[in-house]
Amino acid sequence: MRSDNYQKNNIPAKAGKTKSKIKILPGTPGLTVLLVAFLLIEVTFMSMLTILNILPTLYNIIILIVLIALAVLVFKLLACRKEVTKQRKVGVIISALMIVLLGIGCFYLFNTYSAFSKMSDEDKQYEDFHVVALKDGSYKNVKDIDGKTIFTNVSTSATYDKAQEKLKEEADVKYKEAGGYMQLKSVLIDEKNKEHDELIFISGNNYEMICEDVEDFEKRTRIVHTVSVEIENKDIAKRVGITQEPFNIYISGIDTFGGISKVSRSDVNMIMTVDPVDKKILLTSIPRDMYVDLHSYKAKDKLTHSGIYGVGETVETVEDWLGIDINYYIRVNFTSLEDIVDAIGGVDVESPYAFKSSVSKYSYSEGINHLDGEAALFFARERKSFEEGDQERIKNQQRVLKGILNKITGSTAILTGYTKILDTVGDQIQTNMSQSDIGSLVKMQLEDIGGWSIETTAIKGTGTNASTYSMGSRQLYVVIPDESSVKDAQMKINEMTGK
């Protein structure tokens, strides 16, 4: 009896000991899953934030402390002994809310990383090559060119050779050299304006230049077939400690809408010299028609034409000419400008004149004009309304860029237009700056939201007519550099970079 009573009396004691054990995780599987999910999303968020590295260190420390405190709080609330309590309900609400918020944060961080990655993918550039025939001729599509002879230009371009090989993979064709680009034009429409039912193979850029130079050529011809060839760009970046050392960025604005990956003429040519320590920027503009020696071909041409051989050719041509190092480039087009300006809510641009665009509906007043993307584009492209023509257009391009820089660096535009800006920079801007370089610049600006001092200058010259490498012996309008203007620009750039 005594033994039985002793055992019975000790049963509650054992049960009591079991209940008093500390539980590492909540007692129900659902709460355990919730807690694990919360901890995983916290770790993921902090990992992505660290990899992206765009926030100041102090901000990262504060976020880390807050997340650790929340993790401890949620753990204590969910791990309480009773199955249903107010504390557990609060823990469930906090953890569920934070999972949603951190999930959204991870989404934005991933999109930011993806946008920076796209923007830095400078190796991917393409050039289109067209099979062109008469609009009223017998060739309508790629099937019609099978077994035919196509006239080509004499070229030392490896890209043109690649394009010919690619076309032969798609159609059984033979090639016959006709001479330069203008000789190709004469294969279809000769000097007596007589049409010939033939085929020519020409780069998209040279086709556009012939269409601009020869009246009705575009109307009288058709593109029968197009092949696209990837251009491999060598790494020409000269990397520096981007937040501690001055550097030069070449801004190349190509004359196209849509995607940024196609090579095209460089119509906007600007060197942006940046002093990150003193927060100074110098914008040096170069006329598109400046007559310079192409880096790779050792022949005279317009600076704008260098763009059809890739942005690397433009950068190295300007380096040779001015005797400076260009550390990075940024490549944009018409669509880029429109989208960037719209993403930041428009820009304020000061005009010294009242004028109307010669090619659009827009009018601009003397003084400050608040412009959306399209209005800013036509403001920057206008030249016919001014006596100085292209020189005033260059100044207007600088005014628009200055307005963009002032808006980005001196306001909350980056935060309020964050999603739109990400969409724009990922798809419409191309650069050889690394993701870490871009992140460092963003981080530096977030640490000090103050504005920058922006100075502008432009290289001038005298207009004349001359032959060019890209268009052969045909006389085109070019600008001969004014040497004193060149030296002045060199001096200003070297002063800021400490050279």
Automatic annotation (TrEMBL):
It comes from Lentihominibacter hominis. Keywords: Membrane, Transmembrane, Transmembrane helix. InterPro entries: LytR/CpsA/Psr_CW_biosynth, LytR_CpsA_psr. It comes from the Bacteria. Residues 265-408 form the Cell envelope-related transcriptional attenuator domain. The keyword Hydrolase does not apply. It holds the Pfam family LytR_cpsA_psr. The chain crosses the membrane at residues 31-52, 58-78, 90-110. This is LCP family protein. The keyword Transcription does not apply. Belongs to the LytR/CpsA/Psr (LCP) family.
